[in-house]
Design brief:
Elements lengths: L5 H4 L8 E14 L3 E7 L7 E6 L17 E10 L7 E12 L15 H5 L9 H23 L3 E2 L5 E2 L11 E2 L22 E3 L4 H11 L1 E9 L12 E10 L3 H22 L1 H11 L3 H9 L4 E4 H9 L17 H11 L4 E7 L15 E9 L3 E8 L4 H10 L8 H8 L5 E7 H9 L20
Helix pairs in contact: 3-5, 3-6, 3-12, 5-7
The chain binds 4-amino-1,4-dioxobutan-2-aminium adenosine-5'-monophosphate and magnesium ion (MG).
The site of magnesium ion has 3 residues, from strand 15.
Length: 460
């Protein structure tokens, strides 16, 4: 049986069928002809269902003429072909029941044209707007594509811990998790007295634990919340975000790049095919040229160049950058965007970065200076994926850990993967929110996650 929702009621094949629609009123218009139009949305599609409520309905005067934006309703009726432009169907109501009223004097989603900044203060109601409904549906589709892509390829979905003693990225940007009361001066805050008997943190990545499963089961992916206590107040950083991390045993960096490229293309293709109306809205109202640019990405091989080549391109670009470009320095978002937007006009994969600016677990190249890292850069976003081939050689890995200030004995279990049946392996991480930004054209990462957490802000 077809679901009785706005999405299915709007399809021509529903004409003649009886429907019960449960949703929220977007607008009411009264016609001189003795009936009212209600625009109903229930989240199932971008477009609303137009409902015709005749003045012969028994609660027309008492209820229907008082219905305003935001009221919740249950409406029964029959779907008819619609004479109006831009819609195939409409519902002629046999009954309209108001379930919850919304006072027009105090309901904040009444008015159109609120800024995204204002809507962040109304994060509990913003999913009732066109934009945030569309973002939620596209985000959902992306999550589905992520699972579909890996499941179809035989990857196992692995859940890695959220509370962990290890610092995967070795960057120290971690949130401490504690039950000690540091506001009480009488408590001597010793790590041994804490809940786990040692310092633990919110995970910055599931990679290290993911590697243990890849080195037993071959192909795995993790997909979960990730936390970074970086004080980066940018339109592309969150303190809590979602990351997908595939890891594949016996893969090298080139195979890792191939996987990343087909993965991104699959996500784009699904969004364009499955979220047509939402994508059309983003194209028209958020980012002109979005769909064409995404199609371009689909039909083009990603460029692949080394970090060293990228530095040369940037130095010779004739551009003035805020941050200096020099071999050995990390690339800033302005550099990444120049490469993807201006120089290549499309996605580009940079590889073989200086070891000093990358994590300890990346495989050292024979030059002794660079590691088998890769970043996928895309227009408007910059880095969307970061990954690498992992260091599988025990002694080199131990030395790299020491260099990074980590104690190898704390990571004995990780090193065991190199002691027993070690294999070359590789993986990467895709930031879900950056991906949603890329697909939707939304400029600020705070607007592609329901409840953003950023420095100084954790409301709702
Ligand atoms: O490049 P990152 O730090 O890589 C890792 O965490 C590896 N352990 C991944 C792996 O090899 N398994 O992060 C991966 C991606 C980035 O490319 C970016 O898309 C996203 O995660 N990301 C963030 N997204 C939002 N806010 C932040 N603060 C982010 N930091 C990273
Ligand atoms: Mg990175």
């Amino acid at each position: 049986m077809a679901m009785e929702c706005v999405a299915s009621a709007r399809k021509a094949e529903s004409i003649g069928k009886k429907f019960t629609i449960k949703g929220w009123v977007r607008t009411r218009r009264d016609s001189k002809g003795g009936f009212s139009f209600l625009e109903i949305n229930d989240g199932s599609s971008f477009g609303n269902l137009q409902v015709i409520a005749n003045n012969t309905l028994q609660n027309y005067q008492t209820d229907i003429l008082k219905i305003g934006t935001g009221c919740s309703v249950v409406i029964e009726g029959v779907i008819k072909g619609s004479p109006a432009k831009g819609q195939e169907t409409e519902l002629v109501a046999d009954s309209v029941q108001v379930v919850g009223w919304a006072d027009p004097n105090t309901y904040t989603m009444q008015k159109k044209g609120h800024t995204f900044e204002y809507l962040r203060t109304q994060a509990h109601l913003r999913p009732r707007t066109n934009t945030f409904g569309a973002v939620a549906r596209v985000r959902n589709q992306i999550s589905k594509s992520i699972h579909d892509f890996f499941q179809e390829k035989g990857f196992l979905y692995i859940n890695t811990p959220i509370i962990t003693p290890s610092d995967c990225e070795g960057a120290g940007h971690m949130f401490r998790v504690t039950t000690l009361d540091f506001l009480n001066p009488k408590t001597i805050a010793k790590a041994e007295d804490d809940f786990f008997g040692k310092p633990v943190f919110l995970t910055v990545s599931g990679q290290l634990e993911g590697e243990t499963y890849a080195c037993a089961l071959g192909k795995i992916y993790t997909f979960g919340p990730t936390f970074r206590a970086e004080n980066s107040n940018t339109s592309r950083h969150l303190a809590e975000f979602w990351m997908v991390e595939p890891e594949v045993a016996f893969n090298d960096l080139i195979q890792n790049m191939d996987l990343a490229e087909s993965f991104i293309k699959r996500i784009i293709r699904d969004a364009l095919n499955q979220c047509g109306e939402d994508m059309q809205f983003f194209e028209e109202r958020i980012e002109k040229g979005l769909i064409q640019n995404l199609e371009l990405v689909l039909n083009k091989d990603f460029q692949r160049i080394s970090y060293t080549e990228a530095v040369e391109i940037l130095k010779n670009s004739g551009q003035t950058f805020e941050f200096e470009v020099a071999w050995g320095k990390d690339l800033q978002s302005e550099h990444e965007r120049y490469l993807a937007e201006k120089h290549f006009n499309g996605p580009v994969i940079l590889y073989d970065y200086p070891k000093e600016i990358k994590a300890f677990y990346m495989r050292l190249n024979d030059d002794g200076k660079t590691v088998r890292a890769m970043d996928v850069l895309v227009p408007r976003i910059g880095e969307i994926i970061g990954g690498s081939q992992r260091e599988e050689r025990l002694e080199i890995l131990e030395a790299r850990m020491q260099g990074a200030g980590l104690k190898p004995e704390d990571y004995w279990w990780y090193l065991d993967l190199r002691r027993f049946g070690g294999v070359p392996h590789a993986g990467f991480g895709l930031g879900l929110e950056r991906c949603v930004q890329f697909i939707t054209g939304m400029a600020n990462i705070r607007d592609v996650i329901p409840y953003p957490r950023t420095p100084g802000s954790a409301d709702f």
